[in-house]
From TrEMBL:
Pfam families referenced in this protein's UniProt entry, alphabetically: Erythro_esteras
GO biological process terms on file: response to antibiotic
InterPro entries: Emycin_Estase, Hydrolase/PRTase-associated, UCP036794_erythomycin
Protein name: Erythromycin esterase
Protein's organism: Acrocarpospora phusangensis
Coiled-coil parts of chain: none
Entries under CDD domains matching the protein: Ere-like
Amino acid sequence: MTDSNQSVPFTGDALTALLPPGIRLLGLGEPTHGVEAFLDLRNELFRHLAEHEGYRSIAIESDCLAAVHADAYVTGGAGTLDDAMSRGFSHGLGESDANRELLRWMRAHNEERPPHERLRFYGADGPLEITGPAAPRPALTAPHDYLAAHLDLPWSRETLDDLLGPDERWTSPAALMDPSQSIGRGPEARELRLIADDLRALLAGHAPHLTAATSADAWWHADLHARTAAELLRYHAGMADPTPARLGALMCLRDVMMAGNLDAIVRREARRGPTLVFAHNRHLQRDESRWQFAGQSLRWWSAGAIAGTHLGDRYAFAAMTFGSRGSDVPRPGTLEGFLSASPHDRAVIDPGRLAAGLDRELTLRVPADHTYFSLDPETIGQVDAIVFVRDI
């Protein structure tokens, strides 16, 4: 059984006590999506971090461009909470009560604070839905229009529109499993990738003038769109890959996109405070991510692993896992079965003390319905804290 040195009731203080000093990015991972208990726990932790640990931002596994609408709401912009929920999330996350409560609380928290102390909301993911990537038009035209207001550009909006064509060409559901249905490697897509690269170079090269003429925030949002356009076009090219490596490459490209977003967020927030990022454990873990899918063994490095390479000990990772979900009860020899002996319904576990106190080897839990990934006992040494929820 886990003793008091290994397992304590979940609180923000209990979790942060296990983290190294100087954190700039804290990853809180969940083992599966769609469980409000995990999001409620995330909200509780973020409130603690904002009120007691100096955190000023949160990023979640949602579209980085859509999140601009949610951030505008929480920082005091016009519009309703309903509008922020419908426009500010991807993957159906706008339907979550816990996400609604997060935005409501963040706006209330910000109302009596000056701009430099207000909490910000970010999306860590790209514009990627389950059915496939979005069309690149919004991501590409936003930085073009921003630059065109201040510089003479070699391309017009009409040129971009001609190259882009109808959005339906980019978003065909058939391309998800059939690379021949993707236009991501056609001549127009190749030309657009060059333009996206040049837009980012122009934004960087003229940053002093552009930020003075507009604002640092306006420049940041233009760069966000330009970065997303380049990465989205790269993902579309991956969709058109006819080789067996296609699926693994797409997993890698998605996490590279997420890592780029996290890097930009950390740099933007450098003078304000650390950031909490909430996503699936597979996107935040330090060890190599693995997935058996469609008869293939996929392996890639997560956004957290990539960010951790850059940040070193300024990145920390807390992994969540759970015990029972209905009839799915973990076996005694698994990590989750072992943790279920904890006296706490929600617990924080020190992985180092847990490993030192084990008197037997634990096995990997095999999910009953394959909708989640269990925590691998062999990798807990690369986790700074484990958060365990007994029942979901």
